[in-house]
Specification:
Rossmann fold, seven-stranded parallel sheet, 35 helices, binds zinc ion, binds adenosine-5'-diphosphate, 716 residues
Length: 716
């Protein structure tokens, strides 16, 4: 081979560098070795067989479980100018004949097949007559009963090794579980395969868990800030799915329901619309999953708690495959835990119940954790992290801790007084002195603990009970509808011998605000051009009947919007633009960027200030508000309790983010021409150089403000 794998990466796929461990995997497969690759969703598994397919003689046979996924992969390869096809039951007789001819003539580099098709005797005989580059087994965990998505048709794949001992095999999965991994390797007969495990971290996903109080309102608030973005909302039951989808539609969102109770046709319709960016939100049960390789899913919301950390990781992992910032939000309520438990305990397989309860407990512990979510999540998969992530709700807004000994004592003694026979709801009612029928009937209004907790809201008490359960002071008996009982650890607390430290309930509004602000593709000033490019992409995609991401990913469009390439060479330097796509789509995108640049000045005032606001930090926003009041720099600084220079840098940032900020407003009229004269002579050099030779009455801030305004006007 004369071209290097780096060259292929750049010219065909338009990427500049390999991600870990792509290069090593590719080198080994090119050399004819077997590889077992464990890599999270979005990590970049496809390249690990696609590049070897181009660097080895013959056809690469790719086994993939879902027809829809195959088609997308093939479309994406064709868009890059790679000869690929799929062979499955969805082809018409003519199409099948065409693919057949392509196989025989040796013009195909990659062939995607479903396992049941591959293993048909006539197909295997055909393969035996062809030169094969490699076998790639995608979603390899489907072979194992240990895995979460066992598919019987995968079990026969072990025969490939016996039938084609000389053809290298690369098996890929995102499954974390070591048992499943061993089983896959054994069943495929690739015991000598080199194993690569990429970390499980998905750094671009922000994890947030919010206590569930008014779920529909919470969901609405979350979605409001991201109307143009695509996402999935998972709920546990079909009924809930229908209901949430209906409410979202009524609130004007583009949303549809997806669950196993719908007709095949309806489900296909929803999936297609979602893939084509015609539908923004899918509200779904877990039935909506494997078929989703849409890279620009910007958020995954768990309206109900998932039943295990594995499912949670898997489901949240569908967000942000393109590497852009994405959100995973879970609403977590004690009621969900109860429902999940009773469902599990309904089974009469004791071993199964035990395992599932364990998994559920781990999920609850995650949701209740007051430590960095990412650390907790990765720790669950045995991936220890040294540092907090700075990109989860806990890191962004660490809970304050307080001495809750007194409150804990009240809570525990109330549990004791009601006879350890009631759930948290009732105990809280007693603590708060509620006057419900049931309380009066039970004469719980006569208990010494009745009303001693009236100063806290039931939401606050809820939080305290949750933590007491989590920390092991209280135990919940799920065979008795979640009745609370005291654990041995409760005794010293009741006696006042130990202190209890709890996390202060976090300000939900604040968490919501922070969650709302970040948004994937929409970064301030570039948002408008991004939207333009997105429309161009949509038109091209619709005309070619492919999903938009086959044309270019969101990540590629964001990069284009930021760097605004002027010609083919500059466009080619953007990640995701290979030579084939350049030739095919380059002109259209360059024209759109050019047009945008020319009208940019007129467009400035039309920029949606709401979008801009989203990109601002709290402190920038506060400065902006005062700026709008028209007061002086000193006054803004005084009102904010910050230094002048800090305010000046905020103003510069606000200007850079696309807001219409008049920096000269803060400088004396007669000073401006003097400073501008220096700028004309020296350019926008450093402040010291500019200030030199100017009268002392002109301050650094003056120079900086004028330089900022001057520089901005000279940018294109
Ligand atoms: P997986 O199959 O592991 O879920 P994919 O192979 O679909 O992941 O890749 C996920 C995304 O990352 C795709 O949009 C792909 O184009 C992109 N990608 C993969 N490798 C690279 C790379 N080396 N540089 C830039 N982007 C990459
Ligand atoms: Zn964190």
């Amino acid at each position: 081979m004369t071209t290097t794998i780096h060259h292929t990466l750049k010219t065909i796929f338009g990427f500049h560098a390999f991600r870990h461990p792509q290069q090593e995997v590719i080198e080994r497969v090119v050399a004819g070795e077997d590889v077992f690759l464990v890599m999270p969703t979005g990590g970049g598994k496809s390249l690990c067989y696609q590049i070897p397919a181009l660097h080895r003689d013959g056809i690469a046979v790719v086994v993939s479980p879902l027809i829809a996924l195959m088609k997308d992969q093939v479309d994406a390869l064709l868009a890059n100018g790679v000869a690929a096809a799929c062979f499955n039951s969805s082809l018409s007789p003519e199409e099948a004949r065409r693919v057949s001819r392509q196989m025989d003539s040796g013009e195909l580099d990659l062939l995607y097949v479903a396992p049941e098709r591959l293993l048909q005797p006539e197909f295997l005989e055909r393969l035996a007559t062809l030169k094969l580059a490699l076998f790639a087994i995608d979603e390899a965990h489907c072979i194992s009963q240990w895995g979460h998505d066992f598919r019987p048709e995968y079990t026969q794949l072990g025969r490939l090794r016996t039938l084609f001992p000389a053809v290298p095999m690369v098996a890929m999965t995102a499954t974390a579980d070591p048992e499943t991994r061993k089983d896959i390797i054994r069943q495929l007969g690739i015991e000598q395969a080199r194993i690569y495990v990429a970390g499980f971290d998905r750094p671009n996903i922000t994890y947030t868990v919010m206590p569930k109080h008014k779920p529909l309102a919470q969901l609405g608030a979350f979605l409001n800030g991201r109307r143009d973005e695509a996402g999935i909302v998972y709920a546990l039951s079909r009924k809930r799915v229908e209901q949430v989808a209906e409410r979202l539609r009524a609130a004007g969102f583009s949303a549809a329901a997806y669950h196993a109770g719908l007709s095949d046709e309806e489900r296909r319709r929803v999936q297609d619309a979602f893939r084509r960016d015609d539908l923004r939100i899918v509200v779904a049960t877990v039935a909506f999953g494997m078929g989703i390789d849409k890279p620009n899913v910007r958020f995954v919301v768990h309206y109900d708690m998932p039943k295990s950390v594995e499912s949670y990781y898997q489901e949240t992992g569908r967000a942000g495959r393109d590497g852009l910032p994405s959100e995973a939000l879970m609403l977590f309520g004690l009621g969900d835990v109860m429902t999940a438990r009773s469902l599990i305990e309904n089974s009469d397989n004791a071993e199964r119940v035990r395992i599932e309860l364990q998994k559920l407990n781990a999920m609850v512990a995650y949701a209740e954790a007051l430590t960095c979510r990412r650390r907790a999540l990765l720790a669950y998969f045995g991936d220890q992290r040294e540092l907090d992530c700075d990109n989860c709700d806990i890191c962004n807004d660490p809970p304050q801790r307080f001495d809750a000994s007194e409150l804990a004592r009240k809570a525990l003694s109330c549990v004791y007084r009601v006879g350890e026979r009631f759930g948290a709801r009732h105990v809280i009612d007693v603590l708060r002195g509620a006057k419900g029928q049931r309380i009066l009937e039970l004469r719980h209004n006569e208990l010494s603990t009745y009303g001693i907790g009236a100063d806290l809201s039931s939401v606050e008490w809820d939080n305290i009970f949750r933590q007491l359960i989590h920390l092991g002071y209280l135990v919940q008996d799920f065979s008795r509808f979640g009745a609370l009982g005291l654990s041995p650890a409760a005794r010293p607390v009741l006696k006042g011998e130990t202190q209890v430290t709890l996390g202060l309930p976090r300000d939900v509004a604040k968490v919501e605000e922070k969650t709302r602000r970040r948004s994937g593709a929409g970064e301030g000033a570039h948002r408008a051009l991004f939207e333009v490019l997105r429309n161009v992409r949509k038109q091209i995609a619709d005309a070619a009947s492919v999903p938009p991401f086959v044309v270019f990913s969101d990540a590629t469009l964001v990069e284009m919007a930021k760097s605004k390439p002027r010609d083919a060479r500059e466009l080619l330097s953007i990640t995701g633009v290979g030579e084939h796509k350049l030739a095919k789509y380059g002109a259209q995108f360059l024209a759109a960027i050019d047009e945008y640049r020319r009208t940019a000045e007129e467009m400035q005032p039309q920029l949606n200030t709401n979008d801009l606001h989203l990109a601002l930090s709290d402190t920038q926003r506060d400065t902006y508000r005062l700026y709008q009041e028209g007061i002086s720099l000193d006054e803004i600084a005084a009102r904010r309790g910050l230094k002048d220079v800090t305010i000046v840098s905020h103003l510069e940032e606000l200007l850079a983010s696309g807001l219409d900020i008049d920096l000269r407003r803060f400088v004396d009229k007669d000073k401006i021409p003097l400073i501008e004269e220096r700028l004309e002579k020296l350019g926008a050099v450093n402040l010291t150089a500019l200030k030199e030779g100017l009268p002392d009455s002109i301050s650094y801030s003056d120079v900086r403000l004028v330089r900022g305004a001057w520089g901005r006007e000279r940018q294109s």
